[in-house]
Amino acid sequence: MALGPLRLYTRYVGLSFRSQMQYRASFLMFSFGHFLVTGLEFIGFLLLFKRFGQIQGWTLPQMGLFYGIISVAFAFTEALQRGFDVFPNLIKGGDFDRVLLRPRSPTLQLMGQEFQLMRIGRFTQGLVVLIWSANRLDVHWNAANLMLLFFALAGGVCLFSGLFVLQATMCFWTTESLEIVNCTTYGGVEAAQFPVTIYRPWFRSIFTFIIPLATINYFPLHAILQLDDPLGSSRMFQWLSPLAGLLFLILCLQCWRLGVTKYTSTGS
Amino acid sequence: MKKYLAVLRSRFQTLLQYRTAALAGIGTQLFFGLVRMMIYDGFFRSSTQSQPMTSEQTVTYIWLGQALLLLALFDVDKEVAALIRSGNVAYELTKPADLYAMWFARAFSGRAAPLLMRSSPIFVIAGLFFGLRAPASFTAGFLFVISAFVALLLSASMVVLITTTLLWTISGQGISRLAPVLIFFFSGIVIPLPFFPDRIQRFVDFLPSRGLIDTPLRIYVGHLGRDAALVAMAHQFVWVLILLLIGRWVLSRGLRKLVIQGG
Fold this sequence. Notes:
- The structure holds 2 protein chains of 2 kinds.
- Chain A is an all-alpha fold.
- Chain A contains 14 helices and no strands.
- In chain A, 40% of the residues are buried.
- Chain A has helices spanning 5-20, 24-52, 60-80, 82-85, 87-92, 96-101, 106-112, 120-136, 143-174, 182-191, 201-210, 218-224, 235-240, 243-262.
- By secondary structure, chain B is mainly α.
- Chain B has a domain at 2-15 and 73-117 and 134-256.
- Chain B has helices spanning 2-15, 19-45, 55-67, 78-86, 89-94, 99-129, 138-164, 175-185, 201-206, 214-221, 226-256.
- In chain B, helix 2 crosses helix 6 and helix 7 packs antiparallel against helix 10.
- Chain B starts with a helix and ends in a 7-residue tail after the last helix.
- The mean pLDDT of chain B is 88.
- The A-B interface holds A 25-26, 29-30, 33, 36-37, 40-41, 43-44, 47-48, 50-57, 176, 178-180, 182-183, 186-187, 190-191, 194, 198-200, 203 and B 20-21, 23-25, 27-28, 31-32, 34-35, 38-39, 41-47, 49, 51-52, 171, 173-174, 177-178, 181-182, 184-185, 190-191, 195-197.
């Protein structure tokens, strides 16, 4: 009997876990490496805050929330969407044909390719910063605030997933992977660690309207921190803004479907 | 000497073919440069405390860092790593050449070719539009060029040394993964070294990683005067010599324990 999509996905993930655990030392090393890389990056920010005190009125713990949300959401997405990340190889080798031949949705199969455990390095590092900041701030972490935080994280995972899907979709046309798209993922992570208001207006617009990263930390955090937004958003909007991540993902998946129908094999 | 130059040249020419990769790199680095520039701008605008570098110096430092990023962002030499893993490194020993010199020549062109392709466009674009300034003086510009070249030697010597450690840890983990991360952090790319806490400034100044990015950049922006620049360059140069010697020694140790399985 055929498994339901969710059961099938859990089966995939289970298999992926088991195979990664075959190389335990390698897994530990990679995870630690990720932890170290992002940890040192954060220390860089710490040092800057030590020198400058604040950035446009934002303190270190406040920025830690921006940073934590982005890091945790991105690390989780990297683990989740590894299949889309390595999609160019699938296209180049002509292996996508096999995926299409199976009677299950290609999206599900790609997501099930691998759940990359070693991303736990960045994930933990982001989580540590998030929890530390949350404790340092004078915020009452009631159910509503926690829910909004979770909502923001979920929006972030959707948004970054959308970017990964979009990056994979482009391969249908280019066959090659386009490294430049990394600007939107890794670059987006870098940029969104700070409030969008510190950037020039044109740059800010990109991350508000085109790749709406501001909707997963900038707007919701104004609601959580009870601050007035200089950009003039209302509380209502701040509460609903993480939905933009979901909308973004839906749009990207539409593009993906279009790409799949257009797909011609490299034949190799 | 001729044969090593031949290795260097042929590798250089091969690497110059990777133009698309260079283009992508340029795009990415311009983006990161812009983000960094605006972040530092934000910091400088909201603080009245005196800082170890001026805002203009910092912006120039950041752009030069992006232009020369490849000096500090490195990995093991992938082809040599593959040789070591497959055991084909034995063939390298049959060649009538000094292995260290050959690997060094490879590493040098592996750094220099992509660097050359990426740095000049970033230099021009950042210079025209994003606040990268000319060198502080003629002397500063002149010393910068020399110092950047020594940084290239330093970078290559680190690549060879780290690649050589693979003779012990075949899987490519351990030192060869962690060292590049630490070197990157202490090179000045993540944040300019003068912004590090005063207390550890001397420690940071002692490390070889400073010679990759921070030394040439501080000379360029005039943060190091002529005399200080010469001292910093001597520091850079001494580290190149030390790393060359250590690299040679480690390689000969590694080869001594190499057992060829025949077949």
